[in-house]
Amino acid sequence: MSLTSSATISPPWAVLALVAHHLDPRTLAIASCVCKSWTISMSSDLLWKPLCNNHFPSLSDIHFTDFTVPYHRLYAIGHTAARRRLQTPRKPLLSLDSLIFAINIRTRTSHIVSLEKPGEELQVVPGGVFKFDIDVNYESPASMFDDLGDVKITWNVILRGWRGIFTMMDCEGKVSFSPGAEGWFSEELPSPGCCSSEVASGMVADVKLGFCGRRSESGGGRKVRAEKVSVGILSIVNWRYVNMDDGLRYLQHFLVPSDV
């Protein structure tokens, strides 16, 4: 047999099988595209079963529930799913500068905090998380309050130009007006628009109100002074504040039309 004619003959099946056992999944997939006979050889369960067991052991059991699904197919869908889980989310369309925070905290008879804060004026805490400290300077005669009083808290996020509004918190609770006291409130946030209302979002809106205590005036009257309000979004998975981009992406579901 001449060298020319022997070069056109396909390698024996035994050689293909022997070589194939030493190939990685990507090379196996490329080799299966050479021709029909190689597709059959390189798609064998004998080759892909150990690869699937090694990389995606949880998927290997599916083969026993449906024998028509070959192991090379199980590996392919497992590889695709793993890549999707590692994908970096897109940057949010919203920016902090496009938002206005409207916060109102009041008792039955008086406002403690009532403000609108543009996003560019918010104090971003270190770490790049979705939590903001807002300085307030509200004083009211202490005689208006008991040491422990009922308050109503509302926190709305407004899209500039009043193009949209989302209520982060609308709840009632009790707060102590004693010196150095803090009021801490949280309310579960609804799930994003991609999920039904029965699915929890895994996040809560968080509002903290701090008092610097009471002081005497020259006229003898006493006043309660609200010093700072902190707002943010907490993950209930680890009870940490979500990062800035995740917070903006969450608000984007409710403030930006889905067709944008």
Short description:
The protein has 260 residues and is an alpha+beta fold.
If you had to describe this structure to a student in words, what would you say it looks like?
With 260 residues, this protein is of the alpha+beta class. The chain has helices at residues 3-7, 13-20, 25-31, 36-42, 45-55, 57-60, 62-65, 71-85, 244-255; strands spanning 99-106, 111-118, 123-124, 131-141, 148-159, 164-176, 182-188, 203-216, 222-235, 240-241. Strands 3, 4, 7, 8, 9 and 10 form a six-stranded antiparallel sheet that branches. It has a four-stranded antiparallel sheet with strand order 2-1-5-6. The longest helix is centred in the N-terminal third of the chain and has 15 residues, at 71-85. The chain is elongated. Mean pLDDT is 81; it is low at 1-8.
Features:
single chain; 260 residues; alpha+beta; 6-stranded antiparallel sheet; 35% strand
Number of strands: 10
Report the total helices.
9
- Specify the biggest β-sheet: 6 strands, antiparallel
Let me know the average pLDDT: 81
Q: How far is the N terminus from the C terminus?
A: 68 Å
- Low-pLDDT runs of 5+ residues are 1-8
| SSE run | HHHHHHHHEEEEEEEEEEH
Question: What secondary-structure arrangement, pairings included, does this model have?
Answer:
Blueprint: H1 3-7, H2 13-20, H3 25-31, H4 36-42, H5 45-55, H6 57-60, H7 62-65, H8 71-85, E1 99-106, E2 111-118, E3 123-124, E4 131-141, E5 148-159, E6 164-176, E7 182-188, E8 203-216, E9 222-235, E10 240-241, H9 244-255
Antiparallel strand pairs: 1-2, 1-5, 3-4, 4-9, 5-6, 7-8, 8-9, 9-10
